[in-house]
Amino acid sequence: MNTNKSILNELNDRTREVFRRVVEGYLETGEPVGSRTLTRLMNEKVSAATVRNVMQDLEYMGLLDSPHVSAGRVPTQQGLRMFVDGLLEVGDLASDDREKIDATIGNGGDVGAILDRIGSALSFATRGASLVLAPKHEAPIKHIEFVGLGHDRALVVLVFADGHVENRIFNPPPGQTPSSMREAANFLNSLMAGRTLSDLKTVVSREIDAKKQQIDGLSRALVESGLAVWDGEGETYERLIVRGRSNLLDSEESDLDRIRVLFDDLERKRDIAEFLNLTEGGEGVRIFIGSENKLFSLSGSSLVVSPYMNADRKIIGAVGVIGPTRLNYGRIVPIVDYTAQLVGRMISDRR
Description:
Domain Heat-inducible transcription repressor HrcA C-terminal: 114-333
Domain Winged helix-turn-helix transcription repressor HrcA DNA-binding: 11-78
Function: Negative regulator of class I heat shock genes (grpE-dnaK-dnaJ and groELS operons). Prevents heat-shock induction of these operons.
GO molecular function: DNA binding
Number of strands: 10
Strand content: 15-25%
CATH class of the largest domain: Alpha Beta
Number of domains: 3
Oligomer: single chain
Family: Belongs to the HrcA family.
Order of helices and strands: HHHHEEHHHEEEEHHHEHHHEEEH
CATH architecture of the largest domain: 2-Layer Sandwich
């Protein structure tokens, strides 16, 4: 990003204006922008030939591209990235967009139902596909128990302080006995003290190292194996809610093969955790364009995503909008930002 900003600063005023107007024209219409169009929009009076020379320079720099059937220019992925980093003007959230999103909370229901409605409202407001990553249950834990189901299967039962119960079947280490299972459960229950599961994982690894003499090898292996059930691939978060896929197919620049790849990516359970990893840069909205988007790199799509946090300021999920690279970023960014903050407050208020 810093490199893009430095390149932008090196452009003179005329070149910067040509670049900005090409990108803005493309984002608005989806069509290449020609030199004759630009001469009517420029702040200073310049000839079409002068504008064409500037566009050729920008193309040489890798910021614009010329489709083979048109004399106009469109921004490249690098050009869009530079525009987003240095020239994008983010507007205020429109009152009607705010009202649509707020209305999803007021209808009541459990968290899952509300997140479903939020996803639909977000898709409707942005005319893209919405993504909502629902958090796992994060209430404090009251009790944990291991139950043997055979020589190669065991059940871990997790009881939360709010009455929620989760059961998971897993493959325990060989050699487990009823005694080692009781010892493992007792060890974990002694550490609960109102902690959430994510808190408990951190404490357990530290305590195992500190108290290796107090918990035998079998019990220690069972503890690590049992807790890993909640930390396995594709199991870190409950579900990825996707709404508005048809909006992607309605896009003028839709490439059905690429959209099909995108849908396949969305269906792959193992990629859900990666969606949240995209937000690791901290608070606020992040924009991923084309191949920058690790989860949907093959589909040539753009993703506008923001994490949401619980009352303890921990990132527990994310909301986003996915669509073609020709998104109205200036309008969508405040919508995603507001939605993420709203979801975070809703989750915190229900703890």
